[in-house]
């Protein structure tokens, strides 16, 4: 797999997540809503878990654009992939819908969780 694109239809919009493999590492772009943008960038680096059970976890560094709240989505993707694939992972992007409701925010989060659960490298 060099590049992969996953689209999730939401009740009110579409979420698009693009994966690019760069060597052994990943660059993930998240976009959606009626005004996709760059609201956040997260760099996650794999490391041995603090549980000392041999598993892999990750540590993240975050850059947020002032006033944007995309960190949760980008951080979840970056940390999840860094740990699971044992690869440096960067996630950049943003999802924006005017007057978004709490229920719609939860729908976006669930879609991101689903992408992480279903994703397999081809």
UniProtKB/TrEMBL annotation:
Residues 15-121 form the Prenylated flavin chaperone LpdD-like domain. InterPro entries: LpdD_chaperone-like. This is Prenylated flavin chaperone LpdD-like domain-containing protein. It comes from Claveliimonas bilis.
